[in-house]
């Protein structure tokens, strides 16, 4: 079998269309046949590395048997930002599974990330058992909430601002500004192509999947300044509203948008597709059982490829003067990309400096240093403050003395749960 790995030329439209078709089949989607939509899809790839694996002995040698796309982005971490490489559209044809193709592609991208200055690699996983072997771990979670409007009664008065109903395309300027103002840990960049899809400036949709057209709301505060927006649609079931994207720069804006969406006439159910783990809105209701959580899923998976850079860019919690602010981390990296023994020093403001001390000692071989031992998977998981260090220690995934684990747990804790608002 003669396999070739090729980075596609963006001017080779025929090859890009065949690549998209293979990627679509890999995710059980129907390949696109409309010529105009194909052209739009090619436009979405600008700025990305498009990789295909080809089998010259296959019946259709011009169709890739494996696909992967990647693009550079900025990842928001607690009170900071790092350069990241996002990976998407990873597929391997069933006929070519278990031949090391996926491993070759993933390791290629991890090394590419390091070579281009990225500190972390990010992806969203369609299957939960694949990417751990490459050092990835889930770092954010999202929830789907269903609200029964008939049971909704709010504890507080309406906000003093105003909600406007408008065409999504009229948000082209203000929506990106609001998103950037509200960025938090777990967010990645939203490029021009993303906004064109979300706001219906092109045929391709981020949302809807054949259901109702995208509708939009904008919330302005009492001074007339935009502070939030929502994109929603009418679902397939009569009377249902599906909320696909809700961005708010203030708690008041989030409250106003939730209140409006759950008060639309004739609505029998409102589904919020993506909500953070610490969603506050149910607590504003007289009857919190009006909100049902119907799904919980991991969303953003991370893999650190530069420990000193990514930890040095993060802000940590400093509980008090008696809490240790120097932590020794033994980070085991099976792929030998960024493992070692590190000392994490946190100042009184929560800023950190990280120094690599050497290789990780053999387990149990170093009794002089009260270190915390973990793999790159666990360090990637706790980077944004999602799962607690203490929870992973209780599960046996992080080891160290109770005092060292507790101190690290407090340092990584965050006020807000991390949240990925932009699927890719």
Relative strand content = 25-35%
CATH class descriptor name of the largest domain? Alpha Beta
CATH-assigned fold name of the largest domain: Aminopeptidase
Q: Give the averaged pLDDT, no decimals.
A: 94
* Overall number of structural domains: 3
What's the CATH H-level homologous superfamily of the largest domain?
Gcn5-related N-acetyltransferase (GNAT)
Rg from Cα: 23 Å
Give structural notes:
The protein has 424 residues and is of the alpha+beta class. The protein folds into three domains: 3-139, Gcn5-related N-acetyltransferase (GNAT) (Aminopeptidase, 3-Layer(aba) Sandwich); 143-297, 3-Layer(aba) Sandwich (Aminopeptidase); 306-412, 2-Layer Sandwich (Nonspecific Lipid-transfer Protein, Chain A). The protein is 22% helix and 29% strand. The chain has helices at residues 13-26, 35-44, 101-115, 174-181, 192-198, 251-261, 307-312, 376-382, 389-394, 402-412; strands spanning 3-7, 49-55, 66-77, 80-92, 120-123, 137-138, 141-147, 162-166, 215-220, 226-234, 240-248, 269-275, 291-298, 301-304, 326-332, 340-346, 352-358, 372-375. The strands form three sheets. It has a seven-stranded mixed β-sheet with strand order 1-2-3-4-5-14-6, sandwiched between helices. A seven-stranded mixed β-sheet has the order 8-9-10-11-12-7-13, sandwiched between helices. A hairpin with a 5-residue loop joins strand 16 (340-346) and strand 17 (352-358). Helix 1 (13-26) packs across helix 2 (35-44). The longest helix is centred in the N-terminal third of the chain and has 15 residues, at 101-115.
